[in-house]
Amino acid sequence: MKKSAGFGLKSLLAAAAALPLLAPAADAQNVKYIMLFLGDGMQLETEIAASRYLTGRDYELSWHKLPYQSNVAHWDVTTYEGFAGKGSYDPKAILNVYGYDVTKGGRLPYPLQRGGFLDSYFLQMPKPYATDSASAATAWATGYKTDDGNLAWLPSDPANGSLKTIAEILRETKDFAIGVTSTVPFSHATPAAHVSHNVSRNNYHAIADEILFKTKPDVVIGGGHPGWARNRANTNGQYISDATYNLFKSGAMFPQYIFAERQAGKDGAQSLMAAAEAAARQGRRLFGLYGGPGGHQESPEPQHAPGAPEVKRATTENPLMKDQVLAALKVLSQDRDGFFVMFEQGDIDWAAHGNDYARMIGTTWDMHIAVQAAIDYVNQEGDDMTWDNTLLLVTSDHGNSYLRINRPKAPGMGVLPKQVEGVCPDNLSAKCLNYPDGEVSYRTTHHTNELVRLYGIGKGAESFSKWEGVWYPCTQIIDNTQLFHLMLEAAGVQVESPLKFTASREACN
Ligand SMILES: [Zn+2]
Known about the structure:
The chain has 509 residues and is of the alpha/beta class. It has one domain (34-508): Alkaline Phosphatase, subunit A (3-Layer(aba) Sandwich). The protein has helices spanning 8-17, 44-55, 77-84, 96-99, 102-105, 119-122, 133-142, 166-174, 189-195, 204-215, 242-249, 268-282, 321-332, 347-353, 357-379, 480-490; strands spanning 33-39, 68-73, 94-95, 177-185, 219-223, 257-261, 285-289, 301-303, 310-312, 339-345, 390-396, 399-400, 404-405, 420-424, 427-434, 440-441, 447-448, 452-458, 477-479, 501-502. Helix 12 (268-282) runs parallel beside helix 13 (321-332) and helix 13 (321-332) runs parallel beside helix 15 (357-379). Zinc ion (ZN) is lined by residues 41, 133, 349, 353, 447. The site of zinc ion has 5 residues, from helix 14.
């Protein structure tokens, strides 16, 4: 990190060692700013549902206009061994059909392809074979496939199985600033896989401590505030220990970090931006700790208002995802070398698990305006960021819930289907939301192995097509581990893939 203002002890030492403080020769071909937007559990049908609510049309979200579009396969080692048998995963001899079988799952995600695939391929009972968020994020953060639950750690949990993440590599090789933000706890699987290493995503206190005391990203913003999310016995925070929280609260972590948190009666967007401005001015890191019951921020609430869609903030005490994005960019853009940041809307997944269509619309809207805010940020003039040095990607980590919109009855602009409490489609003794008028349907409460979409714009995106179909011939499918290489390559860093893949060409017939 080389900053216009000092950046704590580290940059003072760096400056002392290399006076005068000159930027390295600009590396004009490579991307300097990487923004990865992640809709957890978001599949194309989710995007279409939100787009229809907001506009009455199918492909009108902010990322639907981006010039690069393809599809991502995201199976993990657990999925692979579900299909191929326990112990069958060998990273040097991967058979692609055991990860994602194009002949059974389709070349394109539903509804781009509406026939020629088997529902049963995605809906094993009691739980479909599919990645979880930890192994999925590990794939694009490290280039390795791993088991369910692992964060930047090799499958089978060997000692010393820690894997270097894309954030760590870009910090080390390019001096990039790094950041993660999420609407769910900052120590939850998706953000954590970029900035911590653990054999279990559930070791929240250790993960939070590794993030804040060891990795020390330049920006960490998320839920998990211990005032709202406690352990069962109410003796400690669930996602961050009370001891760690108290260090920030008491000011002991200043000047390393500027700290902002949820406070009763205070506008979270304002408190977060004020902290970001202070961090940017003083050349410090930012930790924004928000969240509500269960650790995640209360999801925005769409109103049933035919022809006049309206989404309300559930509380003003938490920032929206857009506010997290703008606060993070305020801090990260101070770094003249560049940055890597992952922005997650993590509640789309929670909505899908509960088959909650309204919440899914509210959370996807949150991401829609957050991506638009980032696009506008790059488009504004007077700074160093342009589409010639910035790469913005939007994707998802896995499908969830097997949502299907009933096309003849598809809800229009501002319309929410009637939702009532009932039983779950895959478990008649559990409660889920149901849709008695049949406008939409769900088939599971779990993740699915369905393809998800990838959207991109900016430097490097023009060469992404060379990755399509390499592992899944005759398709426009990229593997989630290839996202690691595609982002690093855009930044001018080459890392060889540890995986050897044998591609079946059956789908070409
Ligand atoms: Zn999930």
